UniProtKB/TrEMBL annotation:
Residues 177-231 form the Bap31/Bap29 cytoplasmic coiled-coil domain. One of its GO terms (biological process) is endoplasmic reticulum to Golgi vesicle-mediated transport. The keyword Transmembrane applies. Gene3D superfamilies: 1.20.5.110. This is Endoplasmic reticulum transmembrane protein. GO terms for cellular component: endoplasmic reticulum membrane. It comes from Cynoglossus semilaevis. It is a multi-pass membrane protein. Residues 133-220 form a coiled coil. Pfam families: Bap31, Bap31_Bap29_C. It is found in: Endoplasmic reticulum membrane.
Length: 248
């Protein structure tokens, strides 16, 4: 086995080991994601795409070279030469076996390399998805708690509104009763005021009549006093006359 195919064989063994390690079930995707985020991988990440593409191209070239070798030693001409010379037959079959071996090694190396790249990508995507799902679950839980809180607040406000409505209706009934009571008192007051006005008018008329009667009596009193004075004057005059007559 030449140096290049020895390298490819060891590369194949390394790929098998890495793929088996990546497929270990008890190592979570988050753990692999934390491993892939080590500083050494971050330092190598700028060269990763170039190295991966270069390895794919090398494996593709080796695979097609192995295909060419298989077709070369499985054709009719080498088989005819092998039938003529037995030593050539063993040599041709040895070359064909090596070409087929190299074909399998390069093909499986290319296949496992692509599988390993895809597995690493899927592990990173699964880890990111798990983190996002955890964040989404947290947000959903907070949203559910907020919704429950809002629902409880709405129920509390609804109950408070119903209580306020009941108290408001009770207050309205009480106010209606008070308004009716005040209306009755106002009506009674108006009736009392009307009655007092009537009594005041009657008293005014009575006072006016009394004043007129007083004026009439006062006039009669003055007339009576004047008549008495006149009588007293007449009596004095008569007495004076009698005195004079007696003196004569």
């Amino acid at each position: 086995m030449t140096l290049q195919w020895t390298f490819v064989a060891f590369f194949l063994y390394g790929e098998i080991a890495v793929n088996l390690i990546l497929c270990i079930p008890f190592i979570s995707a988050n753990r692999w994601h934390s491993v892939f985020n080590w500083r050494i991988w971050k330092c190598l990440s700028p060269y990763w795409n170039k190295c991966s593409f270069t390895m794919i191209m090398v494996l593709v070239v080796l695979f097609f070279d192995a295909v060419r070798e298989v077709q070369k030693y499985s054709g009719p001409e080498p088989m005819q030469d092998a039938k003529v010379n037995p030593n050539v037959y063993d040599h041709v079959h040895m070359k064909l076996f090596r070409a087929q071996r190299n074909l399998y090694i390069s093909g499986f190396s290319l296949f496992l390399w692509l599988i390993m790249i895809r597995v690493v990508t899927l592990l990173n995507q699964v880890a990111v998805t798990l983190k996002n799902s955890a964040a989404l679950e947290t947000q959903i839980d907070s949203a559910v708690r907020a919704a429950k809180k809002h629902q409880e607040d709405n129920l509390r406000l609804k109950q408070a509104f119903l209580d306020d409505e009941k108290s408001t209706s009770a207050e309205n009934e009480q106010l209606k009763k008070e308004v009716e009571k005040l209306a009755g008192q106002l009506k009674e007051t108006q009736e009392a005021v009307h009655k007092s006005h009537t009594e005041v008018d009657a008293m005014r008329r009575q006072a006016k009549g009394l004043a007129q009667e007083y004026d009439r009596l006062l006039q009669e009193h003055h007339k009576l006093q004047f008549f008495l004075l006149k009588l007293q004057g007449a009596g004095h005059t008569e007495r004076n006359a009698n005195r004079n007559s007696k003196t004569e």
